[in-house]
Specification:
Largest sheet of chain B: 2 strands, antiparallel
Membrane topology (chain B): Multi-pass membrane protein
CATH architecture of the largest domain in chain A: Orthogonal Bundle
Number of domains of chain A: 2
Oligomer: heterodimer
Number of strands of chain B: 2
InterPro entries (chain B): ABC_transporter_permease, MetI-like, MetI-like_sf
Family (chain B): Belongs to the binding-protein-dependent transport system permease family.
CATH architecture of chain B: Orthogonal Bundle
Pfam families (chain B): BPD_transp_1
Number of domains of chain B: 1
Shape of chain B: globular
Number of helices of chain B: 14
CATH superfamily of the largest domain in chain A: MetI-like
Strand order of the largest sheet of chain B: 1-2
Order of helices and strands of chain A: HHHHHHHHHHHHHHH
Subcellular location (chain B): Cell membrane
Distance between the termini of chain B: 40 Å
CATH topology of the largest domain in chain A: MetI-like fold
Chain lengths: 280, 295
């Protein structure tokens, strides 16, 4: 806040303002270009993508997506996988967070360290053996196969534990003396207090899962189980430079819409979360 | 009392158990299995044959792996300093309460929510020399288009530019968060001393952002060392391997040639490199913390 006040008093120097304007244009131009292309008839774009900037525009490409069962199926798969991963992460990490933050049991510290160890393991280092183990368990081309790897979030456990530790002890000690079970304290007292942390974790998990590329790429071989990311990549590989450009861009816009909506709704949450937790 | 304690001990396992179970099955077991795998010659169907360190020896002698390692380091060195610098500048410029600043923050974060497939789809089209956006722009001013995707010298820059455009949002947010935590009294003292803006930036703001900067650099380094999607979708690792990254190498070896043990050895090398980076981060942030008087 203080930094805000200091910064707000002084206006941005003109060169900095101009640089910002150019930067913003560089950020936006590709997105607007994509949008413009998505509204053009494919034939008009052959060899002349400049045509995107002038009318006529058409909704034909979007109509083609709705008429194409594959894209809708991929959207559905992405929704199932991202929602499933998010729900799973929230349940597992808040349970674990409660255990680590508010209960005493043998080996608690050691187990917590064991979980933190996971922070140092990059996904790329284990993905090949995950692929092999999932093949043995016959989990490829299935929703559980797509969801399970996303559930092992050490960061999520760490995040929920820190958040629950900060909740005053007095709140649940009284309930404990009254003979309330831990389950009751967890669901009635602690969980309602962690809604901000839950939604932060939910946004990041959903975004991460929605945009995940390598795991669904190698785990799924049947096109009806593709997520949007992988489905579009396959469409992109097949695309010949000269045809179907407008349709491809329309698919990109269509695939980005759900995530933009999530982003617009949770914008404030995302920024507050970064400010509040990332650096403590 | 002791019975009561025992009763309070048990639920702990019930709460942490479900996560631990999945954690062990899906992360720890594959990690250990991966180490085993890297010591074997394995294809997807067979059980594998113990080969000791042969896979690692083969990696050392494999020019394709060497090239991918060099490419990965190069793209990391291209992306991380530029990304950190731009993100810091953006955060300094946009750390104000005005509506315009809020809109600009949104614009600079917007690309971060796109998936790699869509980012590369857009940029492949922009960078394509004949029909792309840059090509058209170059034609309009009568210049030769730059062959970003087909020149071995420029392919890595194509990856770097795309990656910077895509991932500027998160480090910017981290720096904005860091700025929020600079103690207000420091600025008040500087204002009392009539310190210039420049002086305040150099003596107060930048030193206060040391921890954030280290965090951003390390997170980005770890992320860029694992660069995959852009290389696969934008340039397919080409031309002639000029933009093949380590993870793309792993993908090709594992799922193109089904040499899982060999690919996993490459994964372990990458793991070791990232581990060193991460440990350096802990060491550096620990020291940065000491320097700030216990904060």
């Amino acid at each position: 806040m203080a930094a805000d006040a200091v910064a707000a008093r002084t206006r941005l120097p003109l060169p900095a303002a101009i640089a910002l304007g150019i930067g913003a244009a560089i950020m936006l131009a590709p997105l607007l270009w994509t949008l413009a292309l998505s509204f053009k008839e494919n034939a008009a774009l052959v060899g002349n993508s400049g045509a995107a900037l002038t009318p006529p525009w058409t909704l034909e490409n979007y109509g083609a997506i709705l008429g194409n069962g594959q894209t809708l199926r991929w959207l559905f798969n992405s929704l199932i996988v991202s929602a499933g991963t998010t729900l799973g992460v929230l349940i597992l990490t808040s349970l674990a967070g409660y255990g680590f933050a508010r209960l005493e049991f043998r080996g608690r510290r050691a187990l917590f360290l064991f979980v933190l160890m996971g922070l140092a393991i990059p996904g790329q280092a284990v993905i090949l053996s995950q692929h092999q183990l999932f093949a043995w368990a016959n989990l490829h081309n299935s929703y559980p196969g797509l969801i399970l790897p996303g559930l092992t979030t050490s960061f999520g456990v760490f995040f929920m534990t820190q958040y629950m530790r900060a909740i005053p002890r007095e709140l649940d000690e009284a309930a404990l003396l009254d003979g309330a079970s831990h389950w009751r304290i967890f669901t009635r007292i602690i969980l309602p207090l962690t809604v901000p942390a839950q939604s932060t974790l939910a946004v990041f998990t959903f975004l991460g899962s929605w945009n995940d590329y390598w795991w669904p790429l190698i785990s799924v071989t049947r096109s009806e189980m593709y997520t949007l990311t992988v489905g579009l990549a396959a469409a992109q590989m097949n695309y010949a430079q000269t045809s179907g450009l407008g349709f491809l861009m329309a698919q990109a816009v269509f695939a980005s819409l759900p995530i933009f909506i999530v982003y617009l709704i949770f914008q404030k949450q995302i920024i507050a979360a970064m400010a509040g937790t990332a650096l403590k | 009392m002791s019975r009561n304690r025992a009763a309070r001990r048990d639920p702990g396992f019930a709460f942490v158990g479900p996560f631990l179970l999945i954690y062990c099955a899906v992360l720890i077991a594959p990690m250990l299995h991966g180490m085993w795998l890297s010591l074997h010659v394995v294809d997807i169907w067979g059980d594998g044959r113990f080969a000791g360190l042969a896979n690692y020896g083969r990696l050392l002698a494999d020019p394709t792996f060497g090239q991918s390692l060099v490419n990965t380091f190069a793209v990391t060195l291209m992306v991380v300093p530029i990304l950190t610098g731009i993100a810091l500048a953006l955060a300094l410029a946009l750390n104000r309460a005005s509506r315009g600043a809020a809109v600009l923050r949104g614009i600079f974060f917007s690309s971060a929510v796109l998936s790699v497939t869509i980012v590369t789809l857009i940029w492949r089209f922009i960078l394509a020399p004949d029909a792309g956006l840059l090509g058209e722009a170059a034609q309009a001013i009568g210049a030769e288009p730059i062959p970003f995707l087909s020149s071995p010298d420029l392919a890595l820059w194509a990856l770097a530019i795309t990656t910077i455009w895509w991932s500027i949002g998160l480090p910017m947010l981290l720096f904005l968060a860091g700025l929020q935590q600079v103690p207000a009294d420091l600025y008040e003292a500087a204002a009392l001393d009539r310190a210039s803006r420049w002086r305040t930036l150099l003596s107060i703001t930048l030193p206060s952002l040391k921890r954030t900067t280290i965090l951003v650099v390390m997170l980005q380094t770890a992320a860029q060392l694992q660069l995959f999607g852009q290389a696969q979708l934008l340039t397919a690792g080409g031309p002639s391997g000029a933009s093949r990254t380590v993870v793309l190498f792993m993908n090709e070896v594992a799922f193109g040639r089904w040499e899982l043990g060999y690919a996993q050895a490459a994964a372990e090398v990458l793991f070791a490199i990232i581990l060193v980076v991460t440990l350096t981060q802990y060491w550096l942030t620990g020291r940065a913390g000491e320097g700030e008087g216990g904060r």
